Amino acid sequence: MELETLKASWNALDKRLAETEIVNLRIVKEMIQQKTKSAYDGIVGQNIYSFVVNILIICVVFPYVYMNTPISTISFAIVESVMAIGMIPMIWKLSLLSRFDMGSKSCNQLSRTVLCYKKICQKEKIWMIGAVCLAMVAFYISELGFNTEAGYTLGTRLLLPLGLSLVTLVVGYFFARWQLRRHAQQLQEIEQGLKELKEFEE
C-alpha cells in the first residue's frame, strides 16, 4: 500500500514538474517574441519617420524655399526628382516589413524577409550616397552657372554653395550615423530573436 502511495506521489510530482517546465518554456518564448517584436516595431517606426520627413520636404519645405528664393526651376526639378526617386526604396522596405508576421509565419520565412530587407538597405545606402552627391553637384552647377536672375556676387558664388554643402553633409552625416547604429542594433536583436525562436519549432 505504501509503495502504491509512493508511486502515485512520484507520478503526481513528475507531472507537476513537466507542467512547470512547459509553462516556463512558454514564458521564455513569449519574452523572446516580445523582444523581437519590440525591435521590429522600432525599425518600422524609423522607416515611417523617414518616409514622413521626406514627404514633408518634397511637398512642403522645398517648394516653400523655391517660392521664396531665387532658385531656378531646373534646380528645383533636380532636387525634387532625386528625392522622389529616393522614396522608392522606402516604400519597398515598408511593403516588405508589412509581411513580417510572427503569428502566421515560420522563423525560416521571417529570416528570409529580414535578409531581403538587409539587401535593400545595402543597395539603398550606396545609391543614396551617389544620388545625393550628384544631385548636389548638379544643383550648384545649375544655380551658379545658369541662374542669372539670382544675382550672386563672386563671394556668394563660392561661399554660399560651400557653406550649404558643408552644413548639409555634417548634419546628414551625424544623423545618418545615429540612425544606422540604432537600425543595425535592432536588426541584430531581430535576427537573434528568430534564431532563439527557431529552437522552439524544432
Topology:
Layout lengths: L1 H67 L4 H25 L9 H40 L7 H48 L1
Helix pairs in contact: 1-2, 1-4, 2-3, 3-4
What's the N-to-C terminus distance?
42 Å
Number of helices: 4
Over the alpha carbons, how many angstroms does the gyration radius reach?
Answer: 27 Å
Determine the oligomeric state from the structure.
single chain
Structural class: mainly alpha
Order of helices and strands: HHHH
Number of strands: 0
Mean pLDDT: 76
Q: Which bin fits the share of residues in helices?
A: over 70%
Outline the biggest β-sheet. Answer: none
The parts where pLDDT drops under 50 for at least 5 residues are none
Shape label: rod-shaped
Beta-strand content bin: under 5%
Describe this structure in words.
It is rod-shaped and about 105 Å long. It is an all-alpha fold. It is 89% helix and 0% strand. The chain contains 4 helices and no strands. The protein starts with a helix and ends with a helix. Helix 1 runs antiparallel to helix 2 and helix 1 runs antiparallel to helix 4.
